[in-house]
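The freezer alarm interrupted the setup, so I double-checked each line after restarting. Inputs confirmed:
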Amino acid sequence: DGGITQSPKYLFRKEGQNVTLSCEQNLNHDAMYWYRQDPGQGLRLIYYSQIVNDFQKGDIAEGYSVSREKKESFPLTVTSAQKNPTAFYLCASNRGGTDTQYFGPGTRLTVL
Amino acid sequence: AQSVTQLGSHVSVSEGALVLLRCNYSSSVPPYLFWYVQYPNQGLQLLLKYTTGATLVKGINGFEAEFKKSETSFHLTKPSAHMSDAAEYFCAVSDLSGGYNKLIFGAGTRLAVHP
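Predicted 3D structure, all chains:
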Protein backbone atom coordinates (compact mmCIF):
# COMPACT_ATOMS: atom_id res chain seq x y z
CA ASP A 1 0.00 0.00 0.00
CA GLY A 2 1.22 3.46 -0.85
CA GLY A 3 1.18 6.06 1.83
CA ILE A 4 2.96 8.28 4.30
CA THR A 5 4.35 6.98 7.55
CA GLN A 6 5.40 9.02 10.54
CA SER A 7 7.21 7.71 13.54
CA PRO A 8 6.95 7.59 16.42
CA LYS A 9 3.26 8.27 17.06
CA TYR A 10 3.98 9.65 20.54
CA LEU A 11 7.26 11.22 21.62
CA PHE A 12 8.31 12.58 24.97
CA ARG A 13 11.43 14.65 25.48
CA LYS A 14 12.98 16.73 28.19
CA GLU A 15 13.26 20.46 27.71
CA GLY A 16 16.50 21.44 26.00
CA GLN A 17 16.88 18.24 23.99
CA ASN A 18 16.77 18.08 20.22
CA VAL A 19 14.41 15.51 18.74
CA THR A 20 13.94 14.22 15.19
CA LEU A 21 10.58 13.23 13.74
CA SER A 22 10.52 10.80 10.86
CA CYS A 23 8.43 11.10 7.69
CA GLU A 24 8.61 8.57 4.86
CA GLN A 25 6.47 8.29 1.73
CA ASN A 26 6.30 5.66 -1.00
CA LEU A 27 3.97 7.62 -3.27
CA ASN A 28 6.80 8.83 -5.50
CA HIS A 29 5.85 12.39 -4.65
CA ASP A 30 8.33 15.17 -5.34
CA ALA A 31 7.07 17.64 -2.73
CA MET A 32 6.91 17.15 1.03
CA TYR A 33 5.70 19.39 3.83
CA TRP A 34 5.77 19.68 7.60
CA TYR A 35 2.90 21.26 9.50
CA ARG A 36 2.39 21.99 13.16
CA GLN A 37 -1.08 21.71 14.70
CA ASP A 38 -2.11 23.41 17.93
CA PRO A 39 -5.62 23.31 19.40
CA GLY A 40 -7.89 25.93 17.87
CA GLN A 41 -5.27 27.17 15.42
CA GLY A 42 -5.52 24.88 12.44
CA LEU A 43 -2.29 23.83 10.75
CA ARG A 44 0.72 26.02 10.15
CA LEU A 45 3.51 25.30 7.67
CA ILE A 46 6.99 24.76 9.13
CA TYR A 47 9.09 23.69 6.13
CA TYR A 48 8.53 22.36 2.66
CA SER A 49 10.62 20.70 -0.01
CA GLN A 50 9.81 20.60 -3.70
CA ILE A 51 12.72 18.38 -4.76
CA VAL A 52 15.55 16.41 -3.26
CA ASN A 53 18.33 18.47 -1.67
CA ASP A 54 16.19 21.58 -1.60
CA PHE A 55 13.86 22.94 1.06
CA GLN A 56 12.35 26.25 2.07
CA LYS A 57 11.12 27.82 5.29
CA GLY A 58 7.42 28.08 5.89
CA ASP A 59 5.61 30.43 8.23
CA ILE A 60 6.98 29.14 11.54
CA ALA A 61 10.45 27.71 10.79
CA GLU A 62 12.28 29.17 13.81
CA GLY A 63 13.58 26.43 16.07
CA TYR A 64 13.19 23.70 13.45
CA SER A 65 15.46 22.15 10.84
CA VAL A 66 14.96 19.65 8.01
CA SER A 67 16.88 17.67 5.42
CA ARG A 68 15.86 16.10 2.12
CA GLU A 69 18.59 13.69 1.08
CA LYS A 70 16.20 11.15 -0.41
CA LYS A 71 12.96 11.61 -2.29
CA GLU A 72 11.14 9.34 0.13
CA SER A 73 12.27 10.95 3.38
CA PHE A 74 11.86 14.38 4.97
CA PRO A 75 12.85 14.29 8.66
CA LEU A 76 12.12 17.23 10.95
CA THR A 77 14.35 18.15 13.89
CA VAL A 78 12.84 20.14 16.71
CA THR A 79 15.73 21.96 18.33
CA SER A 80 16.12 23.37 21.81
CA ALA A 81 15.65 26.82 20.26
CA GLN A 82 11.97 26.11 19.67
CA LYS A 83 10.25 27.90 22.56
CA ASN A 84 7.05 25.88 22.69
CA PRO A 85 7.59 22.55 20.92
CA THR A 86 4.71 20.58 22.42
CA ALA A 87 2.30 20.04 19.53
CA PHE A 88 0.98 17.59 16.95
CA TYR A 89 3.21 17.41 13.88
CA LEU A 90 1.90 16.38 10.49
CA CYS A 91 3.85 15.50 7.38
CA ALA A 92 2.29 15.74 3.92
CA SER A 93 3.33 15.12 0.34
CA ASN A 94 2.13 15.67 -3.21
CA ARG A 95 3.35 15.69 -6.80
CA GLY A 96 3.89 19.41 -6.54
CA GLY A 97 2.01 22.47 -7.67
CA THR A 98 -1.70 22.42 -6.93
CA ASP A 99 -1.87 18.65 -6.59
CA THR A 100 -3.71 17.46 -3.50
CA GLN A 101 -1.60 17.13 -0.39
CA TYR A 102 -1.84 13.79 1.39
CA PHE A 103 -1.13 13.58 5.10
CA GLY A 104 0.58 11.12 7.37
CA PRO A 105 -0.90 10.00 10.72
CA GLY A 106 1.08 12.54 12.73
CA THR A 107 3.46 12.55 15.71
CA ARG A 108 2.43 14.01 19.03
CA LEU A 109 5.44 15.57 20.72
CA THR A 110 5.34 16.42 24.40
CA VAL A 111 8.24 18.27 25.97
CA LEU A 112 8.41 17.85 29.72
CA ALA B 1 -2.80 37.21 1.20
CA GLN B 2 -5.12 34.25 1.27
CA SER B 3 -7.00 33.45 4.46
CA VAL B 4 -9.72 31.08 5.64
CA THR B 5 -12.39 31.63 8.27
CA GLN B 6 -14.46 28.79 9.64
CA LEU B 7 -17.52 30.04 11.48
CA GLY B 8 -18.15 28.06 14.63
CA SER B 9 -15.39 26.13 16.36
CA HIS B 10 -17.94 23.58 17.59
CA VAL B 11 -21.10 22.35 15.88
CA SER B 12 -23.49 19.83 17.39
CA VAL B 13 -26.21 18.00 15.46
CA SER B 14 -28.54 15.10 16.02
CA GLU B 15 -28.05 11.88 14.14
CA GLY B 16 -29.98 12.14 10.88
CA ALA B 17 -29.97 15.94 10.85
CA LEU B 18 -28.41 18.20 8.25
CA VAL B 19 -24.74 19.00 8.69
CA LEU B 20 -23.62 22.50 7.65
CA LEU B 21 -20.06 23.63 8.29
CA ARG B 22 -19.22 27.13 7.14
CA CYS B 23 -16.07 28.30 5.41
CA ASN B 24 -15.27 31.71 3.97
CA TYR B 25 -12.06 32.49 2.19
CA SER B 26 -10.10 35.45 1.01
CA SER B 27 -8.13 35.11 -2.19
CA SER B 28 -6.83 37.51 -4.80
CA VAL B 29 -6.89 34.85 -7.49
CA PRO B 30 -9.30 32.05 -8.39
CA PRO B 31 -8.92 29.73 -5.45
CA TYR B 32 -8.33 26.03 -5.08
CA LEU B 33 -10.38 25.00 -2.04
CA PHE B 34 -10.29 21.89 0.10
CA TRP B 35 -12.12 20.24 2.96
CA TYR B 36 -10.24 17.78 5.13
CA VAL B 37 -11.48 15.64 8.03
CA GLN B 38 -9.43 14.64 11.05
CA TYR B 39 -10.35 11.92 13.52
CA PRO B 40 -8.75 12.03 16.99
CA ASN B 41 -4.98 11.61 16.95
CA GLN B 42 -4.93 10.92 13.23
CA GLY B 43 -3.79 12.72 10.12
CA LEU B 44 -5.99 14.66 7.74
CA GLN B 45 -8.07 12.91 5.09
CA LEU B 46 -9.27 14.74 2.00
CA LEU B 47 -13.06 14.98 1.80
CA LEU B 48 -13.34 16.99 -1.39
CA LYS B 49 -11.73 19.76 -3.39
CA TYR B 50 -12.69 22.50 -5.81
CA THR B 51 -10.34 23.50 -8.58
CA THR B 52 -12.28 24.72 -11.60
CA GLY B 53 -15.53 23.89 -13.34
CA ALA B 54 -18.66 22.70 -11.56
CA THR B 55 -19.25 24.69 -8.40
CA LEU B 56 -21.00 21.87 -6.54
CA VAL B 57 -18.38 19.36 -5.52
CA LYS B 58 -19.19 15.91 -4.21
CA GLY B 59 -16.84 14.15 -1.87
CA ILE B 60 -16.54 11.01 0.17
CA ASN B 61 -18.92 9.83 2.89
CA GLY B 62 -21.87 11.74 1.41
CA PHE B 63 -20.39 15.21 1.88
CA GLU B 64 -20.58 17.97 -0.68
CA ALA B 65 -19.61 21.62 -0.87
CA GLU B 66 -20.60 24.49 -3.09
CA PHE B 67 -18.20 27.15 -4.28
CA LYS B 68 -19.90 30.56 -4.30
CA LYS B 69 -17.59 33.19 -5.69
CA SER B 70 -19.93 36.10 -4.94
CA GLU B 71 -20.06 35.12 -1.28
CA THR B 72 -16.42 33.88 -1.10
CA SER B 73 -17.78 30.79 0.57
CA PHE B 74 -17.22 27.05 0.37
CA HIS B 75 -19.62 25.57 2.91
CA LEU B 76 -19.63 21.83 3.58
CA THR B 77 -22.93 19.96 3.87
CA LYS B 78 -24.26 16.48 4.41
CA PRO B 79 -28.02 15.77 4.32
CA SER B 80 -28.09 13.28 7.18
CA ALA B 81 -25.49 13.07 9.93
CA HIS B 82 -24.14 9.76 11.12
CA MET B 83 -22.43 9.07 14.41
CA SER B 84 -19.24 8.26 12.50
CA ASP B 85 -19.13 11.84 11.16
CA ALA B 86 -18.01 13.12 14.55
CA ALA B 87 -14.58 14.59 13.88
CA GLU B 88 -12.79 17.86 13.24
CA TYR B 89 -13.14 19.45 9.83
CA PHE B 90 -10.72 21.84 8.20
CA CYS B 91 -11.26 24.12 5.24
CA ALA B 92 -8.15 25.15 3.30
CA VAL B 93 -7.21 27.33 0.35
CA SER B 94 -4.15 27.05 -1.87
CA ASP B 95 -1.76 29.96 -1.77
CA LEU B 96 0.47 29.90 -4.84
CA SER B 97 1.95 33.36 -4.35
CA GLY B 98 5.27 31.99 -3.12
CA GLY B 99 5.78 29.82 -6.19
CA TYR B 100 4.69 26.65 -4.45
CA ASN B 101 1.46 25.17 -3.19
CA LYS B 102 1.05 26.31 0.41
CA LEU B 103 -2.22 25.37 2.06
CA ILE B 104 -3.78 27.99 4.30
CA PHE B 105 -6.03 26.31 6.86
CA GLY B 106 -8.93 27.53 8.86
CA ALA B 107 -8.94 26.95 12.61
CA GLY B 108 -11.20 23.94 12.26
CA THR B 109 -14.74 23.01 13.30
CA ARG B 110 -15.34 20.15 15.67
CA LEU B 111 -18.53 18.30 14.78
CA ALA B 112 -20.38 16.39 17.47
CA VAL B 113 -23.22 14.02 16.54
CA HIS B 114 -25.60 12.92 19.28
CA PRO B 115 -28.25 10.21 19.18
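Quick read of the result. Chain A has no helices and eleven strands.
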